[in-house]
Amino acid sequence: MSRVTINDVARASNTSKKTVSRVLNNEPNVRDSVRERVLAAVAELNYRPLTSARSLATNRSFMIGLLYDNLSPSYIMEVQAGVLEACEARQYSMIVQPLVSTAPDFVERVEGILSRHRPDGLILTPPITDHAKLLNHLRNSDLPFASIAPRQPKGCIGVMLREREAAAAMVEHLVSLGHHRIAHIIGDPKHGAGIWRLAGYRDGMKRAGLKENPAYMVQGRFSFESGVAAARRLLALKNRPTAIFAADDDMAVGAIWAAAEAGVSIPGEMSICGFDDTNIATQVWPPLTTVHQPVREMGKRATEELLLRVLGKGEASMVEVGYEMRMRASTAPAP
Known about the structure:
This protein is an alpha/beta fold. About 45% of the residues lie in helices and about 15% in strands. The chain has helices spanning about 5-15, 15-25, 30-45, 50-60, 75-90, 105-115, 130-140, 165-175, 190-205, 225-235, 250-260, 280-285, 295-310, and strands at about 65-70, 95-100, 120-125, 145-150, 160, 180-185, 215-220, 245, 270-275, 290, 320, 325. The radius of gyration is 24 Å and the shape is elongated. About 45% of the residues are buried.
């Protein structure tokens, strides 16, 4: 059986090849009735356009690259899901590339990826969002990119969340439960999130009139393992905290693991909470109190802004999404 072509779709929908192309590329100025007729023909004939033919016709690869250097698998999986959803809506493909942004040949490696795959644009995740040398290279080469939670959003497109405000709100929740000895497992200092969430923790402590205890502020790396290590240090303190606020869910789950190892009941003897509300937050026991950061939505929105710029379909910008508090069973009144 011969392959269905765009000409077959045009004949079946009683339109032109150009009109079919405009509908498939989601271009404006096509009457709704015509668009519906074309899409019905596409579905009936099970038409799948060849990416190679589209690339030749438009001088585009119809591919978006997602670059990440992040130890949290939960976070990256959610970002990928959002990027892929936005790509599929525009008949784009996605390539995903893990990298080490501190490597001396980091920019050269990215250049190699661009040369091999020739993506139409890039989605940058923290801390790559703030790699000055890479950003200069991308701007000089005129390759569009969108950033998720960059530390310096001015002049960028992508998506942001008020992380400092959200972190302060979590501390205020713990204070409302009667906790005064509140510890913080700090996120990776290379990430804007680590800096913003630490600042929010300090804001919350200050507003509550609580003095910071340096022993209660332990460095983590946005990973389960670093959460375990940090919590072990906190649990070993003579006057240990009654609550731990970890800067992400993976570290919070690591803290729950360390507490179980030490025979400390959660939340009876200690409350633990996180940030992000990735899938792991509801897979652990007890379910994790956390800040809901719509990570999947952020990946989707960043990609939509990028494609606006790539396709010239509108004015791309840096958009802001909201957060929500998710109160679950890992926090309770102070013992």
